[in-house]
Write a structure and sequence with these properties.
This protein has 13 helices and 15 strands. By secondary structure, it is an alpha+beta fold. The protein has three domains: about 160 residues, 2-Layer Sandwich (Beta-Lactamase), CATH 3.30.450; about 80 residues, Beta-Lactamase (2-Layer Sandwich); about 150 residues, 2-Layer Sandwich (Heat Shock Protein 90). The strands form three sheets. It has a six-stranded antiparallel sheet. A hairpin with a 2-residue loop joins β3 and β4. It is rod-shaped and about 180 Å long. The two termini are about 75 Å apart.
Length: about 525
Amino acid sequence: MARQLFVLQIAVITVVVAAGLGAAIFQARHAAADNAQARALSIARAVAATPEVRDALSLPRPTTVLQPYAEQVRHETGTDFVVVMSPAGIRYSHPDTTQIGRRFLGHTAAALRGESITETYTGTLGPSERAVVPITVGGTVRGLVAVGIVESAVDRGLQGQLRTLAVAGVLALAVAGAGTWLVNRRLRRQTHDLGPRELSRMYEYYDAVLHAVHEGLLLLDRTGRVQLVNDEARRLLDLPADAVGQRADGFPTLALLADGEQRVDEIHLTGDRVLVVNQRPAGGGSVVTLRDHTDLQALTGELDSVRGFAESLRSAAHEAANRLHTVVSLIGLGRVTEAQEFATGELALTQQLADRVVESVDEPVLVALLLGKVAQAHERGVELVLDPEAQVPLGVADPRDLVTIVGNLIDNAVDAAVAAPPPRRAEVGAWLDGDELVLQVADSGSGLDADQVEEAFARGWSTKSDERLIGRGLGLALVGQAVHRHGGRIDVSHDAGAVFTVRLPVRDRAALR
């Protein structure tokens, strides 16, 4: 492509320079002709005003005086002919003496009216630039003077100018050609010497890949402006159609990418999505890739809940084995009554907790979560209790979001209680308030200030601290995302510790019956 452009540009430059050179030559030729006519006119006027010429016109044979005088003027001025004639056009002088007495070839009508004229005319000496001036005596035209310069002499005078113009044209062509060669050399480097067909094929492949990949892709320049965004990135980040060319910090979902810093598998929470973001510097800007892990995050949350429940069952089995050994030992020591009281007491306490959870919560996933969280909290020295008046009917909310909201709030409450002095306690409440499901988690920690609450829910970014998808520090942000997705709201107050109250619109009104 660069070679084709080079040949085309050289051809265009050659045509332009040739046209300019031709125009310059034409203009110079026209100017030289005008100069020759002006020179002839001034000489003719001088001759017509000479008394000797006027007096000679009244002689019987004017040629005897006018021929030598005209030749003298012609030689001194460098013109090609000086002709003095009668009003009828009969020559009294001429460089070719055989033409004396013959009629002048040219236009004389205007001169006979007392006017001076200039023209290009072909006479006995060939084409010439000439001037014809009347000789007046007492207001009467007594004769005419014609002075001319043949075109061959005008062209000889142009030869120096033409050589200069030709040299200038060649230099202009050389400079333009050199500039074109440099531009095309740069073009070859920028296009890697690819031709139009290769570039067209690359663009088709690039466009197909850009819109076919399932990952979001953005390109930002060094000033933080969006230079490219594919369909998936536009969908994941809810970007408008005119996002290209605008600054990244002008969009809430892109504000943290505008600095161009390198990021590896960072979690970005938008209004209803969990995105894994990678950003690396490239070509004076940065490349950003996005992966949608919203569903995977939800499944991971459920898996964490099940894993926690399994761990609590394992811990409970271990504790049951210890209690069983204790009962067997008491029986072996003959303390049957103490063994019976110890066994029935532990069983009643465990059964009471399980019965309370099952009676209050109809959602099986949430039941498993609460039982698992109770065991985990117990292992960490925190008493996690369920409000006796708690009520969560089946179908009032999406189970996955309930796990996300309740699980993260309980984890947050247990962490806060562990960090505070004893007694360490966390309480979970749930009830229906009209068309809303109210979830409340309170702890015995130190509570949260207003600025801390805003920061916790607005964080939305965290680097993974382990191999799991979601790293630390995103619990409340995930809660806020789930609540926002369902059109609910979160209130944070302070009692003995922090009290988080979540209100969610009931998904299925039939569940209220």
